[in-house]
């Protein structure tokens, strides 16, 4: 996947676009900026065993001692040949050309200010370094990726903070992937632990074969002590309970969709957590959507990839993405839009997929994906429906936390706004701090304390809030909220189901 | 179907928030949509109104012929701006007629400041008088400003108590000794000294200001000593550093720090330091990203919530989706590649100026990218600027041109959309950087545009 300049000694020709081996990406014309983030051509991670193309000709290039190709194209003349000077391609190599993104950074450090890890971790240099600065450094072949990239929790707040549209999380994902692929010891406990955490779906599907035993065994004291010692999984954390009937088992037992409607179809991407741990969220989604007359489809699916991106396991993520994209494209062809109840799943399908992978139909999937409540707010008159339903019989108060990945989709206020005028519901936004768990981040022994420090502000605000029940869209934020306060945590779809009497 | 409200405010800065609250207080159902985290976190946290009246005519007539574009011909020369002004209201009449203050009237500025005082509460000072305060900023300049954070109060330049300014090696953009030197050179009525102390060395060399603020907020232990105590201990040996005419002061009475003294618990941090040092403690407003800006952002977004304004951040408004009869009906909001329509009876455009990206430019021209409104500009781009960097730069006044109801007009002066109102940096006519008027323009036009939008929506 290395892009390079074919140097045949003819300076004039070397500027013509050459097609790289993935068959779709053309080198830009010199002087013309490359497409920005939103039009960034996607790339894929090589399959297992496939050798990434190397830049065989790079050594022959006339280069200055900075590794920068000479603007005189190696000719003796001291005159600069403007045709040989290619400002876009001074750094050969690398998979994603994020040069324009790196150039857009004017070092205002808004990203650093928004970073919850930099606020507590003295070892972490912050997103500005991890993103544009490291991106430049790693243009050079002999430059290792700094290990601190593994301390990025992948909350992606920096994306939302950047006033200049620098694709920070995309840079982090790529760097992390390269670090894990090229520099991380594959037999290390850390790698194995991270791989297990990233592949939660695999463990969860095994555990849910014997859900009661698994829930007990995983939280059994001596077993947890051993897990911390051997695997680096903090003993303070309680493993989530596994449901005795998964969402998909329930869906099959009920005979699938109860509403047929070729004009209003949605394909539900339930993700791993709603399937194995909280099927009540999936059930609430089905009953709410059927209430509004939607035909719900539940296509075959695997992990959205979020925990894999966060751990640099891009190959795993791509394998799962292939299944997801294939099945969701089929659903879209049947007239469905894709909805997800987990905000990390929807963000992954919308943003990370097209940024990192080049799969047939991946842009269609991204374009047709919505968060479940967001979709209803766009397509239905939720306010009126809630008004007509008349609210709850008994008053209930909630402490709502907006997950970072909801924030990144512009959805941080939607739950509070949806329920603001519903009788019997009192919902308080506990502020814009990060919960600190960031998926698998808080599940690592060496990160546990940092994770709780980041979360401290949210715990405090939750306790100040009137409600004794927490609410959030994100399953791991929910774990952290429960862990820090002891509150029971609900998903907005469950409240919506109650409020609509669906 | 569209996501509807009475008034839709596009933008997330001071003007947008002012417009949203003003419209909500007129009884409108208001929604605010902003693309990114609020630009308030880039702002100093100072609220200026009008500090200077810059000259609009050069000292001698501009020479004929094409502009010199930086080549060494006879450069044009401009007189220094008039100021600093003691009273911002007094200078408004001398601004050009197309200035936003002249368009919306000085009452809008007064009411805008009143609204700000109401929203900011006890976190801000300066509301007791019309007069400007002189606040030292991190470059050592003294800025005339209408309102300032309570945390900056003990640092006012009109106060004659001797001042110690503390700096840290890791904060490279800020040099305490140079700061103190520049203050004295500016002729302030007090003696000042700067000292670089060892405190931030306990953190990584490029520690973020949020890291330092968090450590002070939580009083984290640094090498076994609580952070606030450690900071006070580092500063204590310098309390006698100031040299006056008599050869030395007994003790400074106020100590200035870069603005990182806590986030949520700033007041508590300042009080503890003041107690330990036996001197008043104040913060010096810093460049971006700025904690005073972040604190103001938090406070104003809480206020939006309390006023019942709906707001969302993260997705940009990308254009008009439908318009009929000279009115915008819906605008398109980009949600990760797919647009959703947002409808309203009235719209407020408060997307900022060239820096805030409410205006876009290339070699061909300057555009307003969201609603494609007219931006007044010379056809020849060599007329966008004058040679003297501190002269009356035409580009500084670029922006949409509003009528007296804040509705942007086209080149002929005709209103472009009956129900679109503009506020803040996207409005042209002010040279905010030279006038020190950016916040005041946002407050005055935000208030006027918000009220007009609510009136339009109520009809």
List keywords for this structure.
heterodimer, A: 502 residues, alpha/beta, Glutathione S-transferase Yfyf (Class Pi), Chain A, domain 2, Rossmann fold, four-stranded parallel beta sheet, 23 helices, 43% helix, disordered N terminus, B: 459 residues, FAD/NAD(P)-binding domain, 2 domains, seven-stranded mixed beta sheet, 25% helix
Secondary structure layout:
The complex is a heterodimer of chains A (502) and B (459).
Chain A: H1 99-104, H2 110-114, H3 127-137, H4 157-161, H5 168-183, H6 189-198, H7 200-207, H8 211-218, H9 221-231, H10 247-253, E1 265-269, H11 271-276, H12 279-291, E2 295-297, H13 306-310, H14 314-333, E3 336-340, H15 343-356, H16 362-368, E4 369-371, H17 372-379, H18 382-389, E5 396-400, H19 404-407, H20 414-419, E6 425-429, H21 448-464, E7 469-471, H22 475-485, E8 488-490, H23 492-500
Parallel strand pairs in A: 1-2, 1-3, 3-4, 5-6, 5-7, 7-8
Helix pairs in contact in A: 3-5, 10-12, 12-23, 14-16, 15-16, 21-22
Chain B: E1 3-10, H1 14-25, E2 30-34, H2 88-91, H3 100-104, H4 106-120, E3 124-125, E4 133-136, E5 142-145, E6 148-149, E7 163-167, H5 176-185, E8 192-196, H6 209-217, E9 221-222, E10 225-226, H7 227-235, E11 254-258, H8 266-277, E12 280-284, H9 291-306, E13 310-313, E14 317-324, E15 327-335, E16 338-349, E17 360-362, E18 365-367, E19 401-402, E20 408-409, E21 420-422, H10 432-435, H11 438-458
Parallel strand pairs in B: 1-2, 1-16, 2-13, 7-8, 7-11, 11-12, 16-21
Antiparallel strand pairs in B: 3-6, 4-5, 9-10, 14-15, 15-16, 17-18, 19-20
Helix pairs in contact in B: 1-9, 1-11, 4-11, 7-8
GO molecular function (chain B): glycerol-3-phosphate dehydrogenase (quinone) activity
Protein name (chain B): Anaerobic glycerol-3-phosphate dehydrogenase subunit B
Region (Disordered) (chain B): 56-93
């Amino acid at each position: 996947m290395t892009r390079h300049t074919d140097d045949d000694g003819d300076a004039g020709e070397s500027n013509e676009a050459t097609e790289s081996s993935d068959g779709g990406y053309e080198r830009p014309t010199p002087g013309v900026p490359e497409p920005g983030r939103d039009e960034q051509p996607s790339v894929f991670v090589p399959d297992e065993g496939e050798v990434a193309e190397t830049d065989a000709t790079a050594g022959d290039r006339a280069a200055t001692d900075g590794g920068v190709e000479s603007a005189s194209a190696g000719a003796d003349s001291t005159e600069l040949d403007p045709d040989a000077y290619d400002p876009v391609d001074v750094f050969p190599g690398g998979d994603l050309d994020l040069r324009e993104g790196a150039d857009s950074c004017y070092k205002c450090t808004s990203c650093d200010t928004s970073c919850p890890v930099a606020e507590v971790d003295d070892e972490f240099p912050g997103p500005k370094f991890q993103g544009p600065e490291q991106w430049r450094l790693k243009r050079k072949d002999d430059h290792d990726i700094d290990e601190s990239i593994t301390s990025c929790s992948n909350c992606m707040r920096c994306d939302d903070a950047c006033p200049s549209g620098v694709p920070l999380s995309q840079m982090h994902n790529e760097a992390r992937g390269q670090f894990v692929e090229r520099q991380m010891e594959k037999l290390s406990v850390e790698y194995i632990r991270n791989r297990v955490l990233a592949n939660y779906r695999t463990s969860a599907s095994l555990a849910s074969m014997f859900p009661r035993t698994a829930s007990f065994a995983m939280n059994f004291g001596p077993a947890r002590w051993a897990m911390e010692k051997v695997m680096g999984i903090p003993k303070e954390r309680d493993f989530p309970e596994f449901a005795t009937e998964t969402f998909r088992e329930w869906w099959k037992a009920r005979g699938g969709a109860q509403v047929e409607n070729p004009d209003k179809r949605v394909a539900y991407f339930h993700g791993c957590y709603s399937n194995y741990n909280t099927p009540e969220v999936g059930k609430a989604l089905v009953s709410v959507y059927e209430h509004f007359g939607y035909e719900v489809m539940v296509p075959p699916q695997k992990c959205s990839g979020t925990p894999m991106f966060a751990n640099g396991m891009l190959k795993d993520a791509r394998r799962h993405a292939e299944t997801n994209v294939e099945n969701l494209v089929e659903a879209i062809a049947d007239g469905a839009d894709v909805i997800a109840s987990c905000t990390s799943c929807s963000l992954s399908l919308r943003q990370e997929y097209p940024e990192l992978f080049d799969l047939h139909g991946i842009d269609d999937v991204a374009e047709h994906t919505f968060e479940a409540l967001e979709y209803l707010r766009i397509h239905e008159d939720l306010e009126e429906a809630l008004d007509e339903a008349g609210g709850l019989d008994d008053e209930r108060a909630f402490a709502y936390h907006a997950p970072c990945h909801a924030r990144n989709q512009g959805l941080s206020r939607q739950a509070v706004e949806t329920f603001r005028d519903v009788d019997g519901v009192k919902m308080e936004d506990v502020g814009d701090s990060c919960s600190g768990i960031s998926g698998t981040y808080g599940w690592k022994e060496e990160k546990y304390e940092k994770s709780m420090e980041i979360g401290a502000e949210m715990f405090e605000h939750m306790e100040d809030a009137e409600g004794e029940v927490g609410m959030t869209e994100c399953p791991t934020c929910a774990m952290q909220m429960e862990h820090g306060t002891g509150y029971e945590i609900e998903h907005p779809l469950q409240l919506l189901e109650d409020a609509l009497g669906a | 179907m569209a996501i509807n409200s009475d008034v839709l405010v596009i933008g997330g800065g001071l003007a947008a928030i002012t417009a949203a609250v003003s419209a909500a207080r007129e009884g409108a159902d208001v929604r605010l949509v902003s693309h990114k985290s609020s630009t308030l976190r880039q702002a100093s946290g100072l609220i200026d109104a009008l500090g200077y009246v810059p000259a609009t005519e050069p000292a001698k007539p501009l020479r004929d012929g094409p502009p010199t574009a930086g080549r060494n011909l006879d450069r044009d020369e401009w007189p220094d701006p008039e100021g600093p002004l003691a009273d911002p209201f007094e200078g408004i009449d001398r601004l050009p007629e197309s200035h936003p203050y002249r368009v919306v009237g000085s009452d809008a500025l007064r009411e805008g400041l009143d609204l700000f005082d109401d929203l900011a509460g006890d976190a801000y000072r300066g509301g007791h008088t019309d007069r400007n305060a002189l606040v030292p900023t991190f470059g050592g300049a003294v800025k005339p400003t209408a309102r300032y954070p309570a945390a900056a109060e003990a640092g006012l330049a009109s106060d004659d108590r001797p001042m110690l300014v503390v700096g840290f090696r890791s904060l490279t953009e800020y040099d305490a000794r140079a700061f103190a030197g520049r203050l004295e050179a500016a002729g302030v009525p007090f003696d000042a000294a700067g000292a670089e102390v060892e405190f931030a060395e306990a953190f990584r060399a490029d520690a973020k200001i949020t890291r330092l603020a968090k450590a002070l907020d939580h009083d984290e232990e640094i090498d076994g000593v609580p952070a606030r105590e450690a900071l006070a201990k580092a500063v204590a040996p310098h309390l006698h550093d100031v040299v006056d005419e008599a050869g030395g002061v007994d003790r400074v009475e106020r100590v200035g720090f870069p603005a990182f003294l806590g986030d949520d618990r700033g007041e508590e941090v300042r009080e503890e330091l003041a107690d330990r040092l036996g001197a008043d403690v104040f913060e010096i407003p810093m460049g971006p990203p700025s904690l005073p800006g972040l604190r103001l952002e938090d406070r104003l977004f809480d206020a939006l919530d309390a006023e019942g304004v709906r707001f969302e951040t993260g997705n940009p408004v990308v254009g008009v989706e439908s318009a009929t009869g000279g009115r915008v009906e819906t605008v398109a909001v980009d949600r990760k590649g797919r647009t959703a329509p947002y409808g309203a009876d009235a719209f407020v455009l408060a997307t900022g100026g060239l820096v805030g990206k409410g205006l876009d430019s290339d070699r061909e021209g300057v555009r307003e990218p969201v609603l494609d409104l007219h931006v007044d500009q010379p056809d020849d781009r060599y007329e966008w600027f004058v040679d003297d960097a501190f002269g009356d730069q035409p580009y500084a006044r670029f922006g949409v041109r509003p009528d007296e109801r804040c509705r942007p007009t086209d080149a002929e002066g005709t209103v472009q959309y009956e129900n679109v109102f503009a506020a803040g940096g996207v409005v042209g006519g002010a040279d905010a950087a030279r006038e020190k008027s950016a916040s005041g323009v946002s407050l005055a036009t935000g208030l006027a545009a918000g009220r007009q939008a609510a009136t339009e929506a109520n009809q």
